[in-house]
């Protein structure tokens, strides 16, 4: 249950208050590097889990929760410091909170969850770039952020379609198995 990838995921949860404390103390650029450290633990835990065949149900549930929780902390810090608009924050929060709530709801109902795909991973990288642009006050940060928000909603729609398809296929397989039982 508790293996190295899951411990790295736990570390990512622990970096959330570190990020918030540093950001709140007035050091958003330093806080960005804490966010990067969290991102590196995400890459590392995924790589180790797949490479050493240490993928667990706990890790599959905690990993995206850690990612989304960190992103929500970042969104809140950026909007409260007025580095991003409340509209952008609301769109980002709505998407991430919806992903967390939806995943938890369906997980606890015994439904299969969709693993991260290439578009989801790309969206995460794009968010990191947009946060970099915002924190370091680089040109076109707001426009780029809205582009990434649009991409993230497209990725979410793809996840929903994949989720529906995966669980429909699972239900059909279970139905077929039930039809093959001997009748008495």
From TrEMBL:
It is an enzyme of class 2 (transferase). The chain crosses the membrane at residues 69-94, 114-136, 142-161. It comes from the Bacteria. Pfam families: CDP-OH_P_transf. One of its GO terms (cellular component) is membrane. GO terms for molecular function: CDP-diacylglycerol-glycerol-3-phosphate 3-phosphatidyltransferase activity. One of its GO terms (biological process) is glycerophospholipid biosynthetic process. Keywords: Membrane, Transferase, Transmembrane, Transmembrane helix. It catalyses: a CDP-1,2-diacyl-sn-glycerol + sn-glycerol 3-phosphate = a 1,2-diacyl-sn-glycero-3-phospho-(1'-sn-glycero-3'-phosphate) + CMP + H(+). Its EC number is 2.7.8.5. Pathway: Lipid metabolism; Phospholipid metabolism; phosphatidylglycerol biosynthesis; phosphatidylglycerol from CDP-diacylglycerol: step 1/2. PANTHER family: CDP-DIACYLGLYCEROL--GLYCEROL-3-PHOSPHATE 3-PHOSPHATIDYLTRANSFERASE 1, CHLOROPLASTIC, CDP-DIACYLGLYCEROL--GLYCEROL-3-PHOSPHATE 3-PHOSPHATIDYLTRANSFERASE-RELATED. This protein catalyzes the committed step to the synthesis of the acidic phospholipids. Belongs to the CDP-alcohol phosphatidyltransferase class-I family. This is CDP-diacylglycerol--glycerol-3-phosphate 3-phosphatidyltransferase. It comes from Paenibacillus solanacearum.
């Amino acid at each position: 249950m508790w293996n190295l990838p899951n411990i790295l995921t736990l570390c990512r949860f622990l970096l959330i208050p570190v990020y918030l404390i540093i950001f709140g103390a007035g050091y958003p650029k330093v806080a960005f590097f804490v966010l990067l450290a969290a991102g590196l633990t995400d890459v590392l835990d995924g790589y180790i889990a797949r490479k050493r065949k240490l993928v667990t149900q706990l890790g599959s549930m905690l990993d995206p929760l850690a990612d989304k929780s960190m992103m929500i902390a970042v969104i809140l810090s950026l909007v409260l410091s007025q580095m991003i608009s409340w509209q952008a924050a609301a769109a980002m929060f709505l998407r991430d909170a919806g992903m967390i709530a939806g995943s938890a709801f369906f997980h606890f109902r015994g439904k299969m969850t969709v693993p991260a795909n290439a578009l989801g991973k790309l969206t995460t990288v794009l968010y990191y770039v947009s946060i970099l642009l915002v924190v370091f006050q680089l040109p076109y940060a707001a426009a780029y952020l809205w582009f990434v928000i649009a991409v993230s909603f497209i990725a979410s729609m793809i996840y929903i379609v994949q989720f529906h398809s995966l669980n429909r296929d699972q239900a059909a397989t279970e139905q077929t198995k039930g039809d093959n039982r001997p009748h008495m």
